[in-house]
Fold this protein.
Amino acid sequence: MSDSNSHHGVLLGASAYLMWGVSTLYWPLLDAAGPVEILAHRMVWALLTVAVILAFRGRWDGLLGALRDPRKLLVLTGAAVVISVNWGVFIYTVNSGQTSQAALGYFINPLVSIVFGVIIFSERLRRAQWAAVALGVLAVAVLTYAYGGVPWMSLSVAFSFATYGVLKKLVRLDGLDSLAVETLLMFLPALAYLLFLGQAGTGTFTGVSAAHTLLLIGAGTVTALPLLCFGAAARRIPLSTIGLLQFMVPVMQFLFAWLVFDEELPLSRWIGFGVVWAALVVFTVDMLRANASRPTGAAVAGSTPSGSPAADPYPLDDRAGSGAGHGGSGVEHARISSAAPETAGGPASS
């Protein structure tokens, strides 16, 4: 792999995560609409946006193949439901002035994925990985005290996205094709809900302003564009690099919560987030050491991602994940966590 190709891949990956992070500022612009209405518009316009992209590229095989495969379709139906929950909770969290909880969710998502790897796939973890998980549990305990209650929105974001990663691990499908199937499955319920709002006179699509209408339509582009960049990046750079870039999103979300939305962050919350960051340092150092022990080229991405971030911010194709450079016993969880949002916005995309 040439240096120029690698540098281009890093630029594309950073651009994807930058867009996912900045999309955190997008959803509050739509606060005239409720979270469910925003989610429904995101589903509808994301499908139309992806359809245009697939038509432009003349590539429908992945989408049609998934629709003809009952097992794959069943798994993707579950993924569509889970990512809808993730997107909805994320939008509600940000638009209700609790962006720091969204950031916490995406910070701890890799640790939740590790636990899922142990429980579901019988993976064995190294000591450093167990230490990272233990620190993550401690952080949640500290932040439960700091928030005055269990941070349910953070846990919902983390567990829904980790579940999404598990389901996507079971399906080999390009990220855009996957997003197309998931939004197609949710299209009719979303459209029916929007038509109901319009009939009841409570929808905001045409009742607020032209800018509001355009922003709702733009939710499709906000969802699909970062995924395009991410897919191109995943073919050019090691997934270990993507695994590091993923932390751009929750870092940006935390900074937005602190500096833009002026959320209250007393010392107790800083201590809790500090424990989370310590867990992620342990996690990242262990990941890099594992990568260094693998043969050259084993950690290079070889395919496109499997799902969308925040819009998702982060899921990867199982084929790519298998070469994520997390080799060795008990690190296969990289397939479901090495590239955490969309769901931020997806992250998430969320």
Notes: The chain has one domain: 3-337. The chain has 14 helices and no strands. Residues 298-346 have pLDDT under 50 and may be disordered.
